[in-house]
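hi! just following up on the protien thing from before. the input was this:
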Amino acid sequence: MAPATVAVLFGGRSSEHEISSATAGGVLSAIDRDRYRVIPVGITRDGVFVLEQDDPGRFRLDADRLPEVVDNGTRILWPMPGGSRELRVARADGTIDSLGEIDAVLPILHGLHGEDGTIQGFLDILEVPYAGGGVIDSAICMDKHFMKIALQADGIPVAPGITVRRTRWESHDGDVRAEVDGLGYPVFVKPARAGSSVGVSKAHDASELDQAMRTALDEDDKVLVERAVVGREIEVAVLAGRDGAPTRASLPGEIVLTSREFYDFEGKYLGGDGAEVVCPADLADDEMARIRALGARAFDAVEGRGLARVDVFLTEDGDIIVNELNTMPGFTPISMYPKCWVASGLSYADLITELIELGRAG
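and the predicted 3d structure came back as:
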């Protein structure tokens, strides 16, 4: 059987461009080359689709020099709906070459214009199958404000918090401060539509709120201020079921913090001290079962498609509070999502295969 052709899509216009590019390095290294022919398609920071080199080493995660997609002069020409799925490339010299028909796209994009439903809608219009989240779940989970509304509507507990828009902060900051005082410090201040902990700060008291708001508003015009939940940070990896089967949840993992206050960008991707990813987490059987069940339920509540990582807090009282869902979670080989599936018996390479086949099956 001839291998299926998969376009691996990475980079993008968001502040998480480098992490998406680093994820491409891991995926290009691990994808089953006997099963798939790979076409690496990069998106520059300006949103240009280019044909990239099929070289995992080029996109290696390096704390001293994070990888990126640069404009090499090529232009990807996507197929039109209703016809063949032939992908073409316009070279820098003006010649146009066929890359063959594609069977699926694997978008490993984070943040705006990638994880928010826009690229998913684009591929839907082109009638090209793709792996991962769809339009609705991607859009809902990209915006933490609406994600919390969807979870609460399904009776799923979330952290107490408020949503603050830039215009309100600039014109009525006194009212906002009073509401935050009502929540009680410390609070986490985070952009509503960003990931990888970009723009997230912890304000221990009112004196730190201004800087935390400035940091978050640098990323988004809408900010969530949430009361800090005291508890263990547990994450569970979720996959959609095959052929109508129930949603699957991995063994949960845990973010163990020592000297780091929260699991920030450096701790996630740059090997910073003070945070350790442990999977499986040291949990009682009933705790593990409840977390896995709630992870699958949260995924279903947002009309999940493909995959998600569900982040929860486990309090001393045994309560489980959902923090957020990520429809394209960190997917480097050292990230929690693949680590949880490896601990559950699914290798990194097989996980990539499962995602692609879920996408191909529609």
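DSSP finds eleven helices and 17 strands in the chain.
The mean pLDDT is 93.
cheers
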